[in-house]
């Protein structure tokens, strides 16, 4: 007797995962329409994360930090210095925002003077690696990091008064007023976090579909 084997395709697993995520999202949305919680339930939820209600509130993540959302499921704020984490978040946020704009602009045909036309952002990246231009870019970025980034972070980590991500770069004077500075700090983090997710998705879709902006088949 031959036993039938039940094969599942990756598409089936992907659909089940999507359905599970959709169900969870609808459950959370439904909770928002529920009656107001009683005082006892509020007390019980006081120690929970605002971003992930079923996880504990991060103990070492102060609510006074710009962009606070109570999101630290891996507990990194308990293992690393918050200044170092915020410096890294801001650096990656700024790079992702620049990369997102540059990636889309190239695919829309906006090129620097003298740049060859007719290539997508992915093709331009691969060509830069093959021709060696990418290594020149990485060398220039490394020089800037060694000469400016490393000394600034070292001074901050040794007890200096420098705030994470502060390079005194504000040529238009947007952050001279204290209220404006706080609002801009939050805006930078929110847009930076979105850009990090967006750039990852754009790269993936561009490679998988082989199409330019908006990266859909």
Biggest sheet features: none
Radius of gyration: 23 Å
Q: Please work out how many helical segments DSSP would assign.
A: 6
Q: Which bin fits the share of residues in helices? A: 55-70%
Let me know the average pLDDT: 79
What's the β-strand tally?
0
SSE order, as H and E? HHHHHH
User: What structural class do you assign from the helix and strand content?
Assistant: mainly alpha
Shape: globular
Low-confidence sequence ranges: 1-11, 25-45
Beta content comes to: under 5%
3D architecture notes:
The chain is mainly α and 217 residues long. It has 6 helices and no strands. The longest helix is centred in the last third of the chain and has 32 residues, at 178-209. It is globular, with a radius of gyration of 23 Å. 10% of the residues are buried. The model is unreliable at 1-11 and 25-45 (pLDDT under 50).
Please render the helix and strand layout as text.
Blueprint: H1 10-32, H2 39-45, H3 82-107, H4 121-131, H5 133-157, H6 178-209
List the keywords.
single chain, 217 residues, mainly alpha, 6 helices
Give a quick rundown of the structure.
It contains six helices and no strands. The protein is mainly alpha-helical and 217 residues long.
């Amino acid at each position: 007797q031959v036993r039938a084997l039940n094969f599942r395709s990756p598409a089936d697993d992907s659909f089940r995962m999507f359905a599970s995520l959709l169900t969870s999202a609808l459950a959370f949305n439904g909770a928002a329409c529920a009656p107001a919680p009683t005082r006892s339930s509020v007390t019980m939820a006081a120690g929970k994360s605002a971003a992930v209600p079923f996880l504990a509130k991060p103990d070492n993540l102060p609510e006074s930090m710009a962009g606070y959302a109570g999101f630290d499921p891996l507990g990194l704020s308990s293992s690393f210095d918050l200044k170092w984490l915020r410096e890294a978040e801001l650096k990656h946020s700024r790079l992702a925002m620049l990369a997102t704009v540059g990636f889309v602009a190239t695919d829309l045909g906006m090129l620097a003077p003298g740049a060859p036309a007719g290539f997508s952002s992915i093709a331009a990246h691969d060509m830069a690696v093959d021709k060696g231009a990418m290594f020149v870019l990485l060398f220039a970025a490394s020089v800037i990091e060694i000469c400016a980034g490393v000394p600034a972070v070292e001074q901050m980590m040794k007890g200096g008064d420098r705030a994470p991500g502060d390079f005194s770069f504000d040529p238009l004077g947007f952050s001279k007023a204290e209220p404006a500075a706080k609002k801009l700090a939050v805006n930078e983090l929110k847009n930076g976090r979105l850009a990090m997710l967006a750039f990852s998705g754009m790269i993936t879709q561009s490679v998988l579909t082989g199409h330019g902006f908006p990266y859909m088949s």
